[in-house]
Amino acid sequence: MSHSTDPYEDDLDDLPSPRPVHYAEQSLLGALLLDPHRLSDIRVLEAEQFSHHAHGALFRAMRTVPLPDPETHRSDPAWLNAVLDAARPHAPGLTAPYLHTLVQVCPWPQHAPTYARMIQSDHARRTLLMHAQRLAQTATDATLPNRAVATLTQADSLAQFLDTLAGQFAPHPGSLPRTVLPTQPTARGSEEALDEERLLLATATAQPAALKDMRWLQPDDFTQPLHATVWQCLTSLVHRAEPVDPVTVLWEAQHRGLLADDLAAGDLMALVSTPVGSADYWGERILQRALLTTACDVATRIATYAEDPANTTHQLITGSRRALADLTALRTRWQRSTAPTPPTTPRAPRRPAVSRAGPPPRATTARAFR
Questions:
Q1: Is pLDDT larger for residue 183 or for residue 346?
Q2: CB 117 within 8 A of CB 125
Q3: Rounded distance, CA 281 to CA 200, Å?
Q4: Rounded CA Rg of the chain
């Protein structure tokens, strides 16, 4: 049976093809085993940032065991044995031969800080992917009592993580990701979404005054292009202070080219002729659905960036922030739609007018008439 002579291969790694960070971790640990005093050069690295559990346990043990005397360490393996004993309870698979393998694969202890940055970068990629997956899961979890609020909270967590990364990695020019994003298929809205849009259009036609306070709803929030255009017809009529009813909406739709072979005038009038409830309610429902859909799209976009190993940490930060900007714009409109209407401040009662004709005359006394 033939055995591999590659010193980077070990029995701990069960992956058929180790990723580059695996070799960076081995090289860093080998450098520190050769020169333990270089631990002071990589204080920002944490054991949890290693992708391999055994590597993280070994690194943690190195920080736990007191550093040896440099001269003694060259000929005495006592520190290596102490580190191995400290790490084995957390990683039983570690062996003395593996430590010697780590030493063999890294003849450049002075490169330890570079290896540490590689490990940090890969950990940042994995953590960003985790945040993106959580955002997508939250946005699609129908069991949450307030899914929109929970989704925005998760988006805040992701944004905060990006701010932390930006503080750890210096900015770099030209940091846009080059990852080709998958083409999103044009999906037809669910029946529930379509029903809500129909109800909004009919209710808004019957309650056109409500549209003046619904500027937070945009045509892009609709899942059906036809509904988006009808919404534009309604807002245009209100903006021009013209009468709004099914007939005027039909006339406005004709000028926008909606009356084609597959849409008859009667069908359009029927669409806007059955109001239910309030326009605000249906508008908030549509905007919330658009918010959750955008959050899923943003999460998919960021996850695609994070899964591409060609992207640097700088590119991941820049690309993810730009993706979140799309959600932030929609979030602002969502907050406007759900903000409580401020109460009308009652006018203060007027104070009685003060006469400017001078002070009142003094009261006369009985003595004055004597």
A1: 183
A2: no
A3: 8
A4: 34
Which pLDDT tens digit goes with each residue over 96-105?
Answer: 999 999 999 8
Burial class (CB in 10 A: 0-12, 13-18, 19+), 215: exposed
The Cα diameter of the chain in Å comes to 142
The one-character DSSP state at 11 is: T
For residue 276, give the DSSP letter: -
Contact criterion met (CB below 8 Å) for 334 and 291: yes
Output the CA torsion 114→115→121→122 (10° steps). Answer: 160
Residue with tokens 């699609």: 140
- Contact status, residue 314 vs residue 288, Cβ threshold 8 Å: no
Nearest CA to 294 out of 337, 330, 336 is that of 330
Q: Report how far apart, in Å, the C-alpha atoms of 141 and of each of 241, 293, 335 are.
A: 42, 12, 21
Residue 178 has which token pair?
Answer: 């080059």
Q: What's the pLDDT at 367?
A: 38
pTM over 0.85: no
Helix 313-338 and helix 279-307, axial crossing angle in degrees, nearest 10? 170
Query: Which residues does 101 contact at the CB level (< 8 Å), separation at least 6?
Result: 7, 10, 26
Q: How many residues in total does the chain contain?
A: 370
Angle at Cα 129 formed by Cα 54 and Cα 58, nearest 5°? Answer: 15
